[in-house]
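To whoever picks this up:

The parser on our side crashed when reading a file containing two proteins. I've narrowed it down to the boundary between the first structure block and the second sequence. Both blocks are reproduced below exactly, byte for byte. First block:
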Amino acid sequence: MAALGAWLVFEDEAGFSMTPPTTRTWSRRGHTPAVRVRGRSRRRLSVAALACYKPGERSRLIYRSCPDARPDGRKSFSWKDYRDLIQTAHQQLGGPIVLVWDNLNTHLTAGMRRYIAERDWLTVYRLPPYTPDLNPVEGIWSVLRRTTTANRAFADPQDLITAVRRGLRQLQYRHDVLDGCLTGTGLSLASP
């Protein structure tokens, strides 16, 4: 990777629902706090994120969201959505990319394989099955669920989208948190 001058980029996707994740909180003794939700909603928001690392550079977070109410009826990312995300990352990072991601069926489609083969600036490695502990983006999802979306009742799907985007935007400027997510995997970058 260092010989290529490439960015090491990890990808993962996650879903966020209208039902808030609960975390611990404080309250007066005998007064258990309650988060009231006005009804169940099956609306979800899918997010794909890239955690980007390069020795001598600040870490970066690039993401795209995909609400489940899309005009084409699709509820998740297509291979073209991933292609566009990778292309955006290449433009923003300005250099070759070594992409590490899981074995999601969308990552393995013929269109995606063709796209990867046609790009000399893109090298792809797949994580072994059931190894989320090797992907720093999993740490980003954990931080987001423990902070931005925890103990919060969303008024509507747009409120959920706004909250998740705001949390991710804040994390983009927290290079220490992004670096900590990489460190949490046991991986590190050696400076040249």
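<<boundary where parser fails>>
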Amino acid sequence: MIQFTGESKTWSANYTITKLNREDHISRIQIRYKGKDPANVGRVKYKYTSTAMNGSGEQKLSGNRDIVTGSGGNGALPLEDSTIQVTVEWKGHKEEMELSTGASRK
């Protein structure tokens, strides 16, 4: 399993990749609201990109702090020493995070 993590002032995120075999994998992103009142956040738009993949979505926080989405496939995976850019927008606010594995970059 490879895990990328990062955070901004209001959000934290982690992106995990689980290899099922040589070709197939499952990926999952979890974006967590760090504030006190998730029910007051409303609709959240998010997007994530790296050199190997990207995704986006929109979801309403309703008392739950987390946005979780996942997918499976056999496409390209981000390298362990790469980063994933995550942007979160809500109620006129926008924050960006850079997720990494903590692996050394060459």
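After patching the parser it read the second block fine. The two ends are 21 Å apart (CA to CA). Residues 31 and 67 are 5 Å apart (CA to CA).
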